[in-house]
Amino acid sequence: PDLATWLLQVRTYVAWIHTRYAEAESLGDEAWARLTADPKSDLRVFALHWTGILLAQGRAADAEAVALRALAQAGETRGKDDPLTRQLEAARLSASYRQRQRAEDLAGLVAVAESLRTGATRRPFGQVAAWLAHDLESTDPSAAARWGAEADTALGAVHGADHPWVRDRAGTRARP
């Protein structure tokens, strides 16, 4: 992306990490609009972070739309086995589950988490496990606790236990 759009993305991440949620949402909305207006933009990386922010803020329908748009682009260039594509699919599944409470979305989310568990880096698994823990909180608290502990371990290994993003379990505990 152009420098101004890239800076909007960075400012979105910084605001989010520092729990300035309204600011992060405003910046993210603007960054997403700019990215999607440029047909040459690679949407995947920002889409992954943006869906996480949207999910944490209770904007599941918006998160699903972002994930679907990025998945369409990823399908053209990366294929379904690309780790980033799998994370985007997990975001889509989590967003869909939060809206519709379908067992197949939850099962798909578990499958993606399992597929990322032994990956080369712990961050993708940690993010997906955090979404899964959040999604299971109301229906299966013990499974939510297990997935949450795994998310905490994975994210802590990547960022350190004192990182704001880790303390807030990848933003899943944030509320407006």
Overview features:
176 residues, single chain, 9 helices, mainly alpha
User: Could you tell me the radius of gyration in angstroms?
Assistant: 15 Å
Would you list the SSEs in sequence order as H and E? HHHHHHHHH
Please report the distance between the alpha carbons of the first and last residues.
29 Å
From the spread of the alpha carbons, the general shape counts as globular
Class from helix and strand fractions? mainly alpha
Number of helices: 9
User: How can the largest sheet be summarized?
Assistant: none
Q: Which ranges are low-confidence, i.e. pLDDT below 50, for 5 or more consecutive residues?
A: none
Number of strands: 0
Q: Report the helical percentage.
A: over 70%
Topology:
Blueprint: H1 3-17, H2 21-37, H3 44-56, H4 60-77, H5 83-100, H6 103-116, H7 122-136, H8 141-159, H9 164-167
Helix pairs in contact: 1-2, 2-3, 3-4, 3-5, 4-5, 5-6, 5-7, 6-7, 7-8
Outline of the structure:
The chain has 176 residues and is mainly alpha-helical. Helices cover 76% and strands 0% of the residues.
What would you say this structure looks like, in words?
With 176 residues, this protein is mostly helical. The protein is 76% helix and 0% strand. It has 9 helices and no strands. It has helices at residues 3-17, 21-37, 44-56, 60-77, 83-100, 103-116, 122-136, 141-159, 164-167. Helix 2 (21-37) packs antiparallel against helix 3. The longest helix has 19 residues, at 141-159. The two termini are 29 Å apart.
